[in-house]
Amino acid sequence: MILTNICVQIFALLITILLLLCNQLDRAIRETASTLMNAMLIVNAILLISEIASWSAVGFPALGLINSIITFGDNSLGYVLAVIYTLYVAYTIADESLNMPSWMLGWIFGLCILGILLNFISIFNHMFFYYDRGSFVMGPLYHGNTILSALILAPLIIFILVHNSIIGLRSSLALIINSMLPMCAILLQMIIPQLDLMCLATTLSLLIIYVTVYVRRGNRLAQKELELSESRVSIMLGQIQPHFLYNTLSVIQDMCHGQAPEAEEATIEFSEFLRGNIDSLKAQKPIPFSLEMAHTRNYLALESRRFGDLLHVVWDVRATDFLIPPLTLQPIVENAVRYGAMAREDGGTVEIRGWQDAKHYTVTIIDDGPGFDIKTKKADGRTHIGISNVAERLRTMCGGSLVINSVPDQGTTAAITIPKGASFHDNSR
Questions:
Q1: How many C-alpha atoms does 372 have within 13 Å on its Cβ side?
Q2: How many CA atoms lie within 13 A of 260 on its CB side?
Q3: Cα–Cα distances in Å, from 352 out to 275, 316, 321, 347, 376?
Q4: Among 7-16, 231-240, 362-371, which stretch is predicted with the lowest mean pLDDT?
Q5: pTM for the whole thing?
Q6: Which pairing describes strands 311-317 and 348-356: parallel, antiparallel, or unpaired?
Q7: In angstroms, rounded to a whole number, what is the distance separating the alpha carbons of residues 204 and 329?
Q8: pLDDT band at 71 (very low <50, low <70, confident <90, very high)
Q9: pLDDT greater than 80 at residue 195
Q10: What is the dihedral of CA 232, 236, 238, 242, to 10 degrees?
Q11: Are 341 and 369 in contact (CB under 8 A)?
Q12: Are 206 and 44 in contact (CB under 8 A)?
């Protein structure tokens, strides 16, 4: 039976190493799920190696204390694995706007800590296990680990079953199987104590998680590709009308020349803004920030003519020598004007600030409006698509980020951050 256990664990270790290598070689953008997967694989590999060493040392009385320490480590790593798996479940259901209750997280983490402490004590009082003349012996409270494992996994399974309509049938089934496999191995070991299938069951669970992670990623990439294709079609169709408007504005500008100077100037500003929009729609790569800033200035010039003294604009940009995805700054500034400064009856202020440090270029857009929640929907039922689109293009094209902070009755701050030395990507493909 010892040889059988060793062979089973070596097989599980090979699967774990293969999955770990695949995870490391994946050059796709890292997600939280992939990071948690990596952590679980590493912990499982260490656990399997120690299990193989432990079974190999059976029959050597001189290694009794060492084996007790190894067994403690094995059991402790099992609880660590349970904690990481709980975090994975919490992350997975968060995608469906479902949060795991804090009491459940506290309950699971608390039981894991308790299990580690009890197994450490067992080295000295032998309540869970001990080694007699080189052989593993079950202590009087040996099944304490089994009970703790059941108390950890049962709430997860019940929670998934209760909320399966929200989580989705496929995800719920995968999570339940992942949780049930270790429990089945525990029950089987109670019937045949000499057969250790716990590590193999855990490895199979990790294999299912691995496949689930990459299926979810594939679905997301397919969805993004579909959205990108639809966006390209919309842009192509939308370029027809702006070109017509631009040509018409040129005619109006000629008609206003010498007759209505302010109308002529406003027409020129709008023409430049429209030209900037068309050029940005054509751009497939990041552009100099100075061009994006000029486009934003044209937009603000038009809004200043519209709102007069109600709109105050403050510029304090001290770094412009970097690249940024097109139509990144202007949509954020437009939001600051529409939903921020001009949402107040007495008007407001929009500040655009830019600077650099050793590692990043940063641009902040600040308004003193009523504030808003980026996650809520607008009155017409739509989400803030412009903001999410800017954030996605910053992330995929230059590794940048967009962070929105808003305080009711105080205003909103949007911070665009672009790392220095970033690799820029063409999103046209």
A1: 22
A2: 10
A3: 22, 6, 16, 17, 25
A4: 231-240
A5: 0.52
A6: parallel
A7: 47
A8: confident
A9: no
A10: 130
A11: yes
A12: yes
Domains in the chain: ranges and CATH: 2-224 (1.20.1070.10), 312-429 (3.30.565.10)
Which residues are CB-contacts of 90 (< 8 A; sequence separation ≥ 6)?
Answer: 99, 100, 105
Question: How far is 210 from 85, CA to CA, in rounded Å?
Answer: 12
> What single-letter amino acid sits at 290?
S
Helix residue spans in 257-340 (DSSP H) = 261-282, 289-307, 329-335
- Half-sphere exposure in the Cβ direction for 231 (13 Å, CA): 16
Q: Which residue's entry shows tokens 């579909």?
A: 226
* pLDDT band with cut points at 50, 70 and 90 for residue 5: confident
pLDDT band at 381 (very low <50, low <70, confident <90, very high): very low
Residue that the structure tokens 């003349």 belong to: 133
Instruction: Describe the crossing of helices 198-256 and 64-94 by its angle, rounded to 10 degrees.
Output: 30
CA distance 310 to 295: 21
> Does pLDDT of 9 surpass 90?
no
pLDDT, tens digit (0-9, with 9 covering 90-100), for 230-280: 555 555 545 445 544 555 556 565 556 666 666 667 666 666 666 666 565
Chain length of the chain: 429
Q: What is the largest CA-CA distance in the chain?
A: 107
What are 219's two structure tokens?
Answer: 């679905």
